Amino acid sequence: MKTIQDFQIMKNEKKKISLVTCYDYWSARIIDESDIDAVLVGDSAAMVMHGFETTVNAELEMMCYHIEAVKRGLKNKFLIGDLPFLAHRKNLSYLMESVDRFMKAGAQAVKIEGADGNLEMIEHLVKSGVPVMGHLGLTPQSVHQLGGFKLQGKDELAAKKIFQDSLLLQQAGCFSIVLEMIPAEAAKKITDELEIPTIGIGAGTFTSGQVLVLQDLLGLNKNFNPKFVRKYLDGYDLIQGALNNFNKDVKENKFPQPNESY
Ligand code: KIV
Hints:
Blueprint: H1 4-12, E1 17-21, H2 25-32, E2 38-41, H3 45-48, H4 60-73, E3 78-82, H5 92-105, E4 109-111, H6 119-127, E5 132-137, H7 143-146, H8 156-172, E6 176-180, H9 184-193, E7 198-201, E8 209-212, H10 214-217, H11 235-251
Parallel strand pairs: 1-2, 1-8, 2-3, 3-4, 4-5, 5-6, 6-7, 7-8
Helix pairs in contact: 2-4, 4-5, 8-9
This protein binds 3-methyl-2-oxobutanoic acid (KIV).
């Protein structure tokens, strides 16, 4: 299993880091025996697994339930859990309770969106022995403040703010930072200046690694086709084809055959 120290070495040696999201046991088992470096139980679970419009609906119980399921299938990969909406903004004891639940559910690190107002909490967690991953750029929990799931850091001032936040997160002790939906050049500057690895999603090629939502890279979401997603499988049509073949065989009494019967 790779550790946060390995991710740092990978950045130092300019070896790229691969992450995928995962929310359930059977996907975790497949990922566990793949070459992927680490797994994020993202709060995108609220959208991908529960059909909500945004990640604002992810809750502590929901996240712990997914972390536990993933952990049962994941023996060989580093597991990061995404702290849900406001979990780090209520008060320190709620944060510590949430992180305690995450770690006991099987997470080995937590991810926290944003820098403003979070630095002390991040420092406290790191000093308590909890690895923390930062997240800048498009921070989906702030979607209503940002006015949609849009590219961030487009102008010089906005890019500068993300850059300064990345330095603050590194100073607070983050072991890595996700950079979501920012121009490739802005991500390059951050990656070049920071010691810690950056993990990009919609942030171009220069980051230390890349993360994608598992269902996006498997092509399971037919109508979700943003520029930054590469579909490595035509999963939606393949699964639907298999279901329709099963249905056809049942209707035509071709399944089961004698060799599939007792
Ligand atoms: O929740 C999530 O899936 C994420 C990744 C897209 C980085 O935060």
